[in-house]
Amino acid sequence: MTRNTERAVRLIQIQHLVSRNPLGLTTKELARLCDVGIRTIQRDLLTLQSELYIPIVKKKYDRYGLPEGYFLPPVSLSLYEAVGLFLAARLVMRQTDERNTHIESALSRLCSILPLPVAEHLKHGIRYLGRKVPNPDYLRGCP
C-alpha cells in the first residue's frame, strides 16, 4: 500500500474509532489502535478537522470524539455486505414482537442500496413491521 493510501485508510479508521467511543479516545489510545505514533495521530486529527471538516472535538481529560448528535456520512457497501445486512434485518424482523420506528427507518435506508429484487423482499418485511403494535419506550428521549 502506498503512503497516501495508508493515510487515507487511517483517517477513515480514526473517524470510525471516535464515533464508536462516545467518551472519546486519547491520542495515545488512537496511536496504539492505529499502530502509529502520537504525533502522526495529532496531524491526522488536524487533517480531519481542517481539511475534511469532520467535527472532532476535544473532550474531558484530553480525549477526542465527535459532538453529541453528529452522524457519520453514509457508507458504501459491497453486494455481499449488503446481503449480510439483509439477512440480519430478516432475523430482526422475525425476532421483534413490537413496532420500532428506528428499525423501520434503518431498514428503509438499507433498501435504497440493495438490488431491486432483494429490496422488494425487505420492503415487504418493513410493511409487516409497520402493522405491529408500537412500543413507546423505543421512542423515549428521541427527537
Low-confidence stretches: none
Shape: elongated
Q: What's the helix count?
A: 6
Order of helices and strands: HHHEEHHH
| Major beta sheet summary | 2 strands, antiparallel
**Count of distinct strands:** 2
Walk me through the structure:
The protein folds into two domains: 63 residues, Winged helix-like DNA-binding domain superfamily/Winged helix DNA-binding domain (Arc Repressor Mutant, subunit A, Orthogonal Bundle), CATH 1.10.10.10; 61 residues. β1 and β2 form a beta hairpin. The relative contact order is 0.10. The radius of gyration is 19 Å and the shape is elongated. It has 143 residues and is mainly alpha-helical. It contains six helices and two strands. The model has no long low-confidence stretch (mean pLDDT 82).
Secondary-structure map:
Layout: H1 3-20, H2 27-34, H3 38-50, E1 57-59, E2 63-65, H4 79-95, H5 101-111, H6 116-130
Antiparallel strand pairs: 1-2
